[in-house]
Amino acid sequence: xxxxxxxxxxxxxxxxxxxxxxxxxxxxxxxxxxxxxxxxxxxxxxxxxxxxxxxxxxxxxxxxxxxxxxxxxxxxxxxxxxxxxxxxxxxxxxxxxxxxxxxxxxxxxxxxxxxxxxxxxxxxxxxxxxxxxxxxxxxxxxxxxxxxxxxxxxxxxxxxxxxxxxxxxxxxxxxxxxxxxxxxxxxxxxxxxxxxxxxxxxxxxxxxxxxxxxxxxxxxxxxxxxxxxxxxxxxxxxxxxxxxxxxxxxxxxxxxxxxxxxxxxxxxxxxxxxxxxxxxxxxxxxxxxxxxxxxxxxxxxxxxxxxxxxxxxxxxxxxxxxxxxxxxxxxxxxxxxxxxxxxxxxxxxxxxx
Length: 353
Ligand code: SAH
Ligand code: SF4
What we know:
ten-stranded mixed β-sheet; binds iron/sulfur cluster; TIM Barrel; 353 residues; 19% strand; globular
């Protein structure tokens, strides 16, 4: 019976409205229900006093508001929190990253990732499946509730799709979740505070521009196809040229990316970190408004890569800065709890209190 009910966390506003119409509800009930769910964290139809009893009864019969649960939690010495959700015995991870002026949540879009980038722990794990809209939304919904209850933050202010999985391989569900995230009756975040990171599924990126406008981060990680082919198998299907072209097209119609897109570049010792590589990267990006995020590589067991040393990273950054690029060297957050970029594998941690 439970299975046959519709989970309202799977529905963005238009879909929720259609569902409510099918129950005989008026249009404005959609916004009322969304407010109960997303602004008041209410999952009990009985408490929704401004909804008629008749519609509440219908809702009770045909639907549920079901959030998957964080079952484990680990808190880093720097305040980063990693949560694990168990979905039918499969694990996904969500990471909260506190900063001075922001509360960022890094969400997962798939269980595992089929793209097997060699430097990424998630990619070494068996891919299971795409997450449903409700499973993406549950991560944010629960994080908001927990942070508020523990008095850590009032609410999440920024969301990055940089957890497990490749969001563009789960395009429709990710876009529906993004709609709820941006909706004023949903999580109500500005498009400039929501970032989708992709390794470059070009046809999906081309579709995305007609679906939603959010900040784009491209996991480039190499200054040429030779190196990218070695570390990211997806590059053999969609090469750098086609990826950057699709990113440029996305930029053209985007307000969220007015300051340019983010280029992510993981620093791998003696693989992609030479002065020549920095020069090549600057040539590649010279016509693309972008800021470059250099990410010190985070180790994980069984991997033979090494992170470039800090002097090398600084030299690499300075070459790009001299060419006029904005370069940020990303801080490693939550490394002590394996919550840093590319360390998410869904292994067991502490049980939640
Ligand atoms: N699949 C998407 C989003 C998740 S990965 C993507 O690849 O963009 C988030 C970021 O962490 C990506 O830029 C990814 O390349 C990077 N990353 C993966 N493994 C890493 C590691 N071990 N150390 C540092 N960054 C890593
Ligand atoms: Fe997947 Fe992104 Fe990891 Fe590549 S870097 S394996 S695309 S999660």
